[in-house]
Structure formats: structure tokens, C-alpha cells
Design a protein that fits this description.
Layout: H1 2-11, H2 17-22, H3 39-53, H4 69-77, H5 83-97, E1 101-108, E2 111-118, H6 127-144, E3 151-155, H7 167-170, E4 174-176, E5 182-187, H8 199-214, H9 223-234, H10 241-247, H11 252-261, H12 266-284, H13 289-295, H14 301-312, H15 316-321
Helix pairs in contact: 4-5, 6-8, 9-12, 13-14
Length: 326
Amino acid sequence: MVRGMLAGIEARGESCESYLADVGIPMELLSHPRGRVTAEQYVALFRFLIERRGDECLGFLSRPLKPGSFALMARSALGSRDVRQAILRIARTFALLRDDATLELCCEDDNAGMVLSFDETSVVHHVFLHELLLRVFWRLVAWLAGGRLPARRFDFAFDTPAHVGSYSQAFPAQLEFGQPHTALWFDAHWLEVAVHRDEDALRAFLAEAPANIIMPRRNDEMTSKRVRNHLRHTQPNWPDLASAASTLNVSTATLQRRLALEGTSFQALKDELRRDIAIVRLSTSAAPLAQLAHELGFTDSAAFQRAFKGWTGSSPGAYRKGEAVR
């Protein structure tokens, strides 16, 4: 996703190294197949690119989409009678700002769709552009509709990407690739939902818009989210399953069952967090492996190294040196 975010800039012949350095992301990490960044770094990079380049579309379109354009589209929808009118106003404002990309409202039976089209000659055609604009318009209209707009289907005007495994959270509905247009489809009854948003609500929405647009929405009430937060807060003391269940005021069996319903487990969540912390520490510090093993709750360095190779396919030492995964 970081590579995608930088694709428009790189296609214009500009180096991305300084942008990455300013938000604490090592350039070498981009060449590592299993490299990871934190959510905070990802959002910070998005904000920084917009600010530094003066372009809310990150170099993908033929000319910059000046900062404030998204706010203008959002403000144009205030006072709309319903979601249908809001989408039409947003599409019209977008058309005034751009002539290399368009947004159109389409209706098919009981489905309504927001359909994106691009000028084939002047746009940097990268999947991230489609992903970004689809989420921009989806999150904006969902906010205008009262906070949610359940999707029925997402169409994408490109072949299935290598990172399709990450789509389930960002695009939680049926996925169709290789389509004529990129589009979001939803139940047409949402077009009749009244819009009740004002300037105060808009200011609050815009303050959090970058993170809400590019990061998948998480349900804070999900058990897995509560477990992740608990694990983060207890570092470097890593609790076991029984201890975590006690802190969360549930039985061990209940915690296991709830996590299973969400498609995960306590150990999987623990290992995911330890993996991500290890990757960041290896990429940004010279801490000895024995120290990292202790911080991550392993009995010794050898146990940490075995676990890390299982997570990433690479030893910690090779990862730190930037060697390719074998």
C-alpha cells in the first residue's frame, strides 16, 4: 500500500526517499517483500505527501488536485435533500475541479452505484488511484448518510492485484476485477436517506478525514480489537490467554470462542503484534537480538529467531541487512 501511495509521484520521475525519511520510513523497507509500516506512519505519509506536493491526488492525475478540493466537495453536499442529491452535487463539483476523471451516479434495478471513469491518456493508471478515489467518495457519502453506507459490491477496472488478500477490510463486500469501470454498488434505498449534516459536523469530519479514508474502519467493540489494545498496553510484559481474559472480564473459553468467530486467535494476535514490532525495531534500531527477544517476551534469542523466520521467511539478521527473503 505504501508503494501504491508513492506510485503517482514516482511515475512523474520524482524520488520518494525524502518523503519517506520525513515520516520515519526507511527507503530500504520498500524493497523487502515482507516489509511493514505502522498505521500511524501510513497516515502520516499520506498527510505529508498532500502537504508537501499540494496535491490531494498524489500525482496520479494530470495536474494537482489542490488541498481543499475534498473539503469543497463535502461542503457542496451540505444542505442536500437526500443522499441522491448529495452524490449528484459531489459529482458536479468534482467535474468542475477535474476533466481527467469523473464520478457518475448509476442505477440498475435495486442497485445504485458511484462509478469512476478516467482519461486514458493523462492519468497515471495504478490500482492505488482507483482504491483511493473509491474510498474517498464512499467514506464521504457514508458520512453524509449518517455514518454508514453498506456496500453490496465493488468493481475494479484492473486485474486482481497481488495484495488482494488485504481487500477484505478496506472493501468489505463482493469484489469484481477486470470490469469496465471502478465502482461502488449499494442498495438503492440509501439514495432516499435524508442528509442531516452541518458546518460544525463537517469540520469534525474533515479533521479526521485522511485517516478515515485510507485506513480500514475497525469496530472498536470487536473482541480482537480489545485484545490488540490490551497487548499493546502491557508491553513488554506479554500476558497469556488466561490473564488477558481476566483483564477483559470474560472467561478463557468465551474469549477463545469470540476470537474464533472473528477468524483469529489469541496467539495469532499476539504473534502479529510481536512480528510488527520486531520488523519496526529491526528496521529502525541497532538493538541486539537478545534485547529484542526479551522485549517481545521470548525466552531467548534463538526462540525469537525461529519465530521471526516462521513469520517472514527471513532471519532477523538478514532482514536487518535488507537481504531478500529466501
